[in-house]
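# step 3/5: fold
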Amino acid sequence: MDLGIAGKWALVCGASKGLGYGCAKALVEEGVNVVINARGDAALQTAAAQLRAISLDAARASGQKAVEVLAVACDITTPEGRAAVFSVAGGPGTDFDILVTNAGGPPTGDFRDWEREDWIKAVDANMLTPIELIKATVDGMAARGFGRIVNITSSAVKAPIDILGLSNGARTGLTGFVAGLARSGIAAKGVTINNLLPGKFDTDRLASTHQAAASKSGKEVADIRQLQSAQIPAKRFGNAAEFGAICAFLCSQHAGYMTGQNILPDGGLFAGTF
């Protein structure tokens, strides 16, 4: 299926590895120019090189021009970081057609141990930063008649996890905001906003939650991993490539009638009708 987005520009945050990288890779494979962002420069440059290689291979096979892959290592949660992304040489400024917001989850733990500053950091990274990125790009999308915004949140929005209280709270706040904005006047101007709520995907974040669960229970990490995968109806953890494919579809021309939705790729783990 041709997703109809070749030649467009996407900003993909947290794209040096894991789910963010999976989304960037899927978009590059569809001929989308990307600006990728993460804090760590070394890992980000490695990811950019891999994406450029993928693009060159595709270009040789199709005879088409390779896409642009620009990398900006910065803290996207700061005004300075966002300014760096929007001013990168060769990029589209704020005129992105596609925005994929993504930030590493806040620390696990017990809410009794968290101070106000812990909550502020969580809300800033996982709610306010996506809102700032949307604010900077959504009106331009609406003026051009096309825009796709995908927020990578968490399955914890649907089924809260006790040790992820900071994430539960901050990401649910973003979800509520998006529910209203997605149904405002931008929907009639070709702009959609949806959330992707990953379940248990085989990423560094999952490894950290396994370690936290092991520490809390006294079990081995390998035992926690085996127990959790066995609880998933699909009997496995997800992978970044399949997550990226879902993201790319939500960014496509074919998903123009889908907005304000919370998509839950979790292998069937959430045991609910809705």
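# step 4/5: annotate
The helical segments are 18-29, 41-62, 79-86, 116-144, 165-181, 204-217, 221-231, 240-250.
# step 5/5: archive (pending)
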